[in-house]
Amino acid sequence: MRTYSLHPESIRNLFDHIAPTYDLLNHLLSLGQDLYWRKKAVQELNGLEGWILDIATGTGDVAIEVIRQDGYHRKVFGLDFCESMIKRAQQKVSGKGLSQRIGLSLGDALSLPFRNNTFSASMIAFGLRNIVEKEQALSEMVRVVKEKGKVIVLEFTFPQKGWMRRFYPIYFQRVLPWVGGFISGDRGAYAYLPESVSHFGSVESYEEVMKKVGLDNVHSRPLTSGVVSIIAGIKKCG
Fold first, then answer.
1. Is beta strand 228-235 parallel, antiparallel or unpaired with respect to 102-106?
2. CB-based contacts of 200: which residues, under 8 Å, 6+ apart?
3. Whole-angstrom Cα distance, residue 93 to residue 100?
4. Which residues of 203-223 are buried (b: 16+ CB within 10 A; e: fewer)?
5. CA proximity to 175, closest of 190, 160, 164
6. Where do the structural domains in the chain lie, given as residue ranges?
7. pLDDT tens by residue, 125-151
8. Quick check: 31 and 215 in contact, CB under 8 A?
9. Looking at residue 5, what is its pLDDT?
C-alpha cells in the first residue's frame, strides 16, 4: 500500500494516482452530498460579480458551480498544482462549453501568480488541509482579493454533536479507505484522508487565523451535521 504525507510532492502524487476516479468517488463516498456542499460554499459569494479565484480547483467542480449560479456576471480562474487534475478540469469545462468563462492553470497556493486586489473573491474547497503553511495560503488568498471581497474555505471537519459524532469516525476511518481504495486502486490515498482531517484543527482556530491575515466578519457554517464546514470572511479596507 502506498503511503502519503503532507509533503507537497507526496500530495501531488496522491492526486495523480486518484485523478481518474476522483469525481466518481467524491459522489459515491459522500452519498452525493459533495454537490450540495459546493453549492452552499458558492452561495457564500452572495451576489459578488467579476473574477472569482478557485484554488485547488481539482477537476473544476467549484469553478463550474460558480458559473452555474451566475454565468452572466462572473468569470473564474481555477488553479491547481496537480497536472492530472487540471487536465480533467479542462476536459470537463470544455465539454460544458465554458472555456470562455473559466480559465485553468497550474499554480502554487503559497505564491499566487496574481497582482494584489485582482479578484472579487477567492475560494478553496477541500484543499487547505493538504497545505502545511495554511496561514501563508490564507494570506495569499486575502492579498489577491479586492477590498470588501470574500475569502471562502470549504473543508472537512469532524461532527461534534449527535449520532453523527459516533457514526462518522467508523465510516471515515474504516469504510471510506476500504471502498475508496478498492475503486481507485490506491488504498493509501483514502487512508490519508481521515488522517489529514484529524490534523486540520478546529473551525474556531481557523476563524482566528483568517482574522489575523486581514479578514473581518469571519463566520463559519457546519453542513451535514458538521461533516464539512464553510469558513468565510470579508477583506478589510485600508
1. unpaired
2. 128, 129, 155, 156, 157
3. 9
4. beebbebbeebbbeebebeeb
5. 190
6. 30-156+200-235
7. 999 999 989 999 999 999 999 999 999
8. no
9. 63
Q: Which fold has domain 30-156+200-235?
A: Rossmann fold (3.40.50)
pTM confidence score: 0.92
Determine if residue 224 is left, alpha or beta; phi over 0 gives left, psi from -120 to 50 gives alpha, anything else beta: left
Positions in the chain whose pLDDT score sits under 70: 1-6
Return d(Cα 178, Cα 168) in angstroms, integer: 15
User: Is residue 155 exposed (0-12), middle (13-18) or buried (19+ Cβ within 10 Å)?
Assistant: buried
- Give the cell for residue 174: 474504516
Q: Write the single-letter amino acid at 217.
A: N
Q: Map grid coordinates 471502498 to a residue.
A: 179
- Of 55, 34, 14, 41, give the one whose Cα is nearest residue 144: 55
Q: Which three three-digit cell numbers place residue 115? A: 497582482
